Amino acid sequence: MRRILYTIGFSLVLGSSFSCISSSSEDPLAALLTSPPVISSVTPQIGTPAQNNLNAFYSATEVVIKGENFGVDTVVRFNDIVAAITLNLGTELYTKVPDGAYSGFITVSKSGGSCLPNSKTGVNCAGMEYFIDCYAVTGKQYGPEIELKQGSSLSVEFDGQETKAFHTDTLLASRNLTIGCESTVTVRVFDRSCKATDYVLQNDPIIPFPAGVATQFYITADSKTCSLVL
């Protein structure tokens, strides 16, 4: 009787051991396949696509995404723009801000997953806010940006032939920037993806700005005081 009980007890313990081993070996794989990716950090969180604007060229910002569960068939997007992955270490992804990127979200999705358009959520998807700044990449060579709010005006003094950097707030509707100055001015206006349009040696230009974005721009003028109305 003792031998029978011992045999039964040993079988139960042995079976339990096999069950634990099997469960522990399967759980990590199941988690890897079914769990969504997780983003813990994006460095830097402000950058620019490549800029090649007449007399200035700046490379696309390199971005490192850290987290877990990235998988192997990984897709990185800046909103709806797919970015090339230069290196995937499983917990770190290396990429660059692609042409056409604009402020919104950077997302990571894995095989079988997808992110909702211009969102940081979806199936097997993770995201974080990302900001496009066309001016920061220059080291802010023209000093701090001056903010011009919609429906307001500024009086700005230029010393010699000087360039100043500006940005609007996010415009609720399309508006015109009207510049009044005693000298001719040159204005460089960036779109949301940092492509520049230049208005060279203009007299009192009126420049259209789009709705829904904060527009960055430069003004170069001689030793004059200029008025800006938006």
UniProtKB/TrEMBL annotation:
UniProt KW keywords: Signal
Claim: Signal is one of the keywords in the record: yes
Highest taxon of the lineage: Bacteria
Signal peptide: 1-22
PROSITE patterns in the cross-refs: PROKAR_LIPOPROTEIN (PS51257)
Classification via InterPro entries: Ig-like_fold (IPR013783), Ig_E-set (IPR014756)
NCBIfam families referenced in this protein's UniProt entry, alphabetically: LIC10067_lipo (NF047769)
Protein name (database record): IPT/TIG domain-containing protein
UniProt organism field: Leptospira noumeaensis
